[in-house]
């Protein structure tokens, strides 16, 4: 689906105004930063003046954004369907704006390993949020109890493992590319299911 020029023009005008207001800047402040008059900026925002390329460049700089971000069309496909990750027994979603990042939902059903033999270290970084239940995170020589609605963030270069405390728990994880590869390279822990 393509957008007509008028639709893009209207979107850019709304975006200019929204960015200005989000920064708490007046028409005069942004106009001065963009080397425009306040009345010109007001007419641009309200659609009473045509947008010119040189003005868009100046406005993007004045609003601390890129020209690409200022004029990009509306996203046509904002919904992302999950993919079943059989290797990790999880659901995962790619993050389109950051291709090296993946979001994963896992169900932890058993306790973490009792000894360090079940812990792994690999390059990367992870963020984990407990959606339901309580997770136990083993990180290096420390043991963390992560309750519902709490999160943990750590370098995966530290030996780590996790499991559920008492009953199964649901976790949401964000992994960078290196952490994702580190999980793919080893067997899935027996304490998880999708």
Q: What is the structure about, briefly put?
A:
The protein has 194 residues and is α+β, with helices and mostly antiparallel strands.
Walk me through this protein's architecture:
The structure is a single chain. The protein is of the alpha+beta class and 194 residues long. The chain has 2 domains: 5-71, lambda repressor-like DNA-binding domains (434 Repressor (Amino-terminal Domain), Orthogonal Bundle); 83-193, Jelly Rolls. It contains 6 helices and 10 strands, in the order αααααβββββββββαβ. The chain has helices at residues 5-23, 27-33, 38-46, 53-62, 67-71, 177-184; strands at 83-85, 90-94, 102-108, 125-132, 134-139, 142-147, 151-155, 160-164, 169-175, 192-193. Strands 1, 2, 3, 4, 7, 9 and 10 form a 7-stranded antiparallel β-sheet that branches. Helix 2 crosses helix 3.
Tally of individual helices: 6
Question: What percent of the residues sit in helical stretches (DSSP H or I)?
Answer: 25-40%
CATH architectural name of the largest domain: Sandwich
Oligomeric state, counting identical vs distinct chains: single chain
Spatial extent as radius of gyration: 24 Å
Instruction: Note the beta-strand portion.
Output: 25-35%
Structural class: alpha+beta
- Distance from N terminus to C terminus (CA atoms, Å) equals 35 Å
Tally of distinct domains: 2
CATH topology term of the largest domain: Jelly Rolls
How much is the average pLDDT?
Answer: 85
Question: What is the makeup of the main sheet?
Answer: 7 strands, antiparallel
CATH H-level superfamily title of the largest domain: Jelly Rolls
Shape, principal axes of CA atoms = elongated
Low-confidence stretches: 187-194
């Amino acid at each position: 689906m393509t957008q007509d020029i008028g639709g893009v023009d209207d979107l850019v005008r709304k975006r200019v105004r929204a960015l200005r207001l989000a920064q708490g800047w007046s028409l005069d402040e942004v106009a001065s930063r963009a080397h425009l008059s306040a009345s010109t900026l007001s007419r641009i925002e309200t659609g009473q003046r045509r947008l010119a390329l040189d003005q868009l460049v100046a406005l993007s700089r004045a609003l601390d954004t890129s020209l690409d971000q200022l004029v990009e069309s509306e996203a046509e496909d904002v919904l992302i369907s999950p993919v079943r990750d059989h290797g990790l027994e999880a659901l995962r979603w790619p993050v389109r704006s950051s291709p090296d990042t993946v979001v994963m939902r896992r169900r932890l059903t058993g306790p973490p390993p009792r000894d360090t033999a079940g812990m792994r270290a690999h390059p990367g970084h992870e963020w984990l949020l407990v959606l339901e239940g309580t997770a136990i995170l083993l990180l290096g020589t420390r043991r963390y109890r992560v309750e519902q609605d709490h999160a943990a963030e750590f370098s995966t270069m530290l030996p780590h493992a996790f499991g559920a405390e008492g009953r199964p728990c649901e976790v949401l994880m964000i992994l960078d590319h290196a952490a994702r590869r580190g999980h793919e390279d080893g067997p899935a822990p027996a304490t998880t299911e999708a």
